[in-house]
Write a structure and sequence with these properties.
478 residues, 2 domains, mainly alpha, membrane, Arabinose ABC transporter permease, globular, MFS_dom, cell membrane, Growth Hormone, Chain: A
Amino acid sequence: MKTRYSFKSLAIFVLAIAQLMLALDYTIIYVTLPSIGQDLHFTASSLQWVVSAYSLIFGGFLLIGGRMSDVLGRRRMFMIAMALFGLGSLAGGFAPNGMTLILARGLQGLGGALLSPATLSLIMSNFEEGPERNRALGIWSTMGGVGMSLGLLLGGFLTSYSGWAATFYVNVPVAVIVLILTPFVLAESRISSSQQRHFDLSGAISVTAGMILVVYYLIQGPEEGWTAASTLIPGIAGVILLVLFAIIERRTANPLMPFKLLKNRSFSGAVMTAVIFSASFGSLYYFLTIYLQQVLHYTAIQSGLSFLPLTISAFLGAKLVNRLLSVTGMAGTIGIGMALGAAGFLLLMPISANGSFWGIMPGIILAGLGQAIVFTTMFIAAGTGMEPAYQGVASALVSTGQQIGGSIGLAVILAVITAGLGPGHGMDAGSPADLNHALHWAFGMNMVLALAGIVVSVVWFNKRRASSPAALIQMNER
């Protein structure tokens, strides 16, 4: 029993470190962008592709990455993905010019797209449904919050004292350690030989190309204009390809993404929650960083330290999930998390251009608690009653919901701010006072979205409408 517990602890350690690395890389790049642009001679417009190349490939390959995990083996794909991410990081650190760095970021994005669903499905397959899995997901999700905060702090420190390349190199030893440990602590998991292992090539091509074009539209829309031909045409083409994907999936005998998964109310609710979660909580780091660095004029290191209360509260929030689930159920737990987030955003709305860290601390503590509770619970919901053969693609769908929700949510919030305040008074405002006013609107929109999340939790996870795990498995088999 003690040996089994030790191996379980090592297993969640490896999976949590993978999540830490992905989350850290998400925020660390923003701190390094000015130095990268200066050293590699990026133009202002081309510098965004250091971020966009990662997002584009990550968002486009998530679904196919999830299905590859199910078919080829989750541990195998986890190791391949970790190796790709490590190689991309190494290439990024050595990049002699801008194009090489953008290609390296694309390789990191591919590694991330394969790694994210593989990590989640390994948690689902290596830990039994119930408290054991919930605990593992709590640790995994907490490391995500730690990674995002640590990325801001570590990015400022490494860029200041070692140069921007060090922010890429830091991933390499982590990847090597994880690759060494993985064969010993994680059990392989895949579709059994008695099940159909056909790979839906036409579905994979249409959904990957469609997602890449839609994500491209969401990335470029704010820069070039939502109705500009250079963004609108790829966006329409992406939607057409996704519609084609839906037609293919309904007609093929062995679909990449069986639509019967959406009949599982716990799973479809998790996808909806993921969209709203990223649209609200997902932009918190973005807006807080703007406030700390552009309004209060904190350094990158000071900004990173300011996020520590959010990280600590996320630790506490993740530890509350099992207890909340036993008392309030799925709907109540997600509803409580969303309500805490809404309260946190409400406390952040009155921020002042002459404020301080202490003024935002109550708000970010509540937001951190809510963030951890919702994030952990939505992945518990995604795995509840899910047929084992589709754990990878189910995890990928929830992660896709996060990607789309984050992009659309930020775009909508910025559009509302611009419409409400007018040009020159939004997030591109010149004075700290005008920028601070725009942030009031941003946190207000975050609060509205979090309140919408409470409604979703009641509608999708209502006990009278949701099925038991056993019933959900039977429904999936149909």
